[in-house]
Amino acid sequence: MELIARIKSEQIIAMKAKDKPRLGTIRLIMAAVKQQEVDGQKTLNDDEVLAVMVKMVKQRRDSVSQYQSAGRDDLADVELAEISVLEEFMPQPLSDEEVDALVKAAIATSGASSMQDMGKIMAVLKPQVQGRADMGKISQLVKANLA
Fold first, then answer.
1. Which of 61, 114, 115, 123 has the most crowded CB, counting CB atoms within 10 A?
2. pTM of the full predicted structure?
3. How far apart are CA 29 and CA 57, in angstroms?
4. Can you give the CATH number for the domain in which 106 is found?
5. What is the CATH number of the domain that holds 53?
6. Do 13 and 36 fall within a single domain?
7. What pLDDT, in 10s, does the model give residues 40-93?
8. C-alpha–C-alpha distance, residues 113 and 125, integer Å
């Protein structure tokens, strides 16, 4: 619940500073979290809140690429600003070397030897890298190491 408390305190700071774009993004975070809590009929912990935020960042990155391909840089800039606010609440991203080391360690600990064991490896990796690395890139690394 530490993450939600931090988001709420930043919301108050943004209100006092009259920073409307930042406040709007923080309110979007709170609305998405609240929606998940209502849908699941439970209070979300920090990992679940982080998963919601990872999904929000992914949606915005998709929107940015679509807006830029359509020549709507004004809308892409809004999405990029929201991504920067979202990333403030997420943990520091892992470097490529750290991700590679985690993938190799996960392969070793799970005893994986073929592509059929990829699910086991991803199950080991997901809690370690949630919100800190792109799961698509990690999947590609796992495939490359298993091939």
1. 61
2. 0.76
3. 10
4. 1.10.10.410
5. 1.10.1510.10
6. yes
7. 999 998 888 988 998 999 999 999 999 999 999 999 999 999 999 999 998 888
8. 16
